[in-house]
Design brief:
This protein has helices at 7-21, 77-95, 100-104, 120-130, 150-158, 192-203, 210-226; strands at residues 26-28, 57-61, 64-70, 106-111, 137-141. With 227 residues, the protein is α/β, with parallel strands linked by helices. The N and C termini lie far apart (46 Å).
């Protein structure tokens, strides 16, 4: 029996379908996920495989460029940091092909392993990586344990992206004083106090073990949920 597409192909297919529903043009951008910078003429201007993620895809969607990737199978801070480092490197390669304005709209969508949606450590690490605003904006789709729920879970993910159209879910009623930018991403809803806690924990990371950092992140998230 076929197991269906892998997580990377699955998120690319779902995002492409969501964009098509909105009548946004979609095109593959294979050159953005290679090893060579734009205009590279020698091996010195190429990144080594160990500096890049093992798999990545790139799409142009409307005015946005999106790099797609996968997160590690286990929720550890060192593993997520290493994945982020490699995907940031891939985004640097991608930016070499983009204009200044296009670079501002570069996005990185990372998909988590099966069952990560309600795993406490994954929720905290997902928020941690989304706070990293270096090189590109980052969003994580943490998938449910039951594949039958992928559709609903992905819909929740899309509501946090530039593909969101919340005004279309509001019975078409817009107040006269509302001003909407159709291409602006939906807010994540992360409280300022929680964001500051995450930043302080990350900045003080050298003073703690990886397990302690994850535990501090979990506690910060729990305080947010009960506040």
């Amino acid at each position: 029996m076929s197991e269906g597409p892998g997580p990377l192909d699955d998120i690319v297919r779902r995002v492409s379908s969501a964009a098509a529903t909105l009548k946004l043009p979609v095109s593959e951008q294979a050159q953005l996920v290679g090893r060579s910078f734009n205009g590279a003429s020698s091996a010195a201007t190429m990144l080594e495989p160990g500096e890049l993620p093992p798999e990545a895809r790139a799409l142009r969607i409307g005015r946005y460029t999106v790099i797609f990737g996968t997160l590690p199978d286990t929720p550890t801070l060192p593993g997520v940091r290493e994945a982020l480092r490699r995907y940031r490197n891939q985004c640097v390669v991608a930016r070499s092909f983009l204009s200044s304005n296009e670079s501002l709209d570069l996005q990185l969508f990372l998909v988590g392993p099966r069952g990560s949606e309600w795993e406490r450590k994954w929720k905290s690490l997902g928020l941690f990586l989304e706070r990293d605003d270096r090189v590109a904006r980052k969003l994580a789709w943490l998938r449910p344990r039951d594949a039958a729920r992928d559709g609903d879970s992905f819909d929740d993910f899309v509501r946090r992206t530039f593909l969101a159209r919340p005004w279309q879910e509001d019975d078409g009623e817009l107040h006269d004083n509302q001003s909407l930018d159709l291409d602006e991403p939906a807010p994540t809803g992360l409280a300022r106090s929680t964001a500051e806690d995450f930043d302080n924990i990350a900045l003080d990371g050298d003073a703690r073990t990886p397990d302690e950092i994850v535990e501090f992140l979990v506690r910060a998230w729990e305080r947010r949920e009960t506040s």
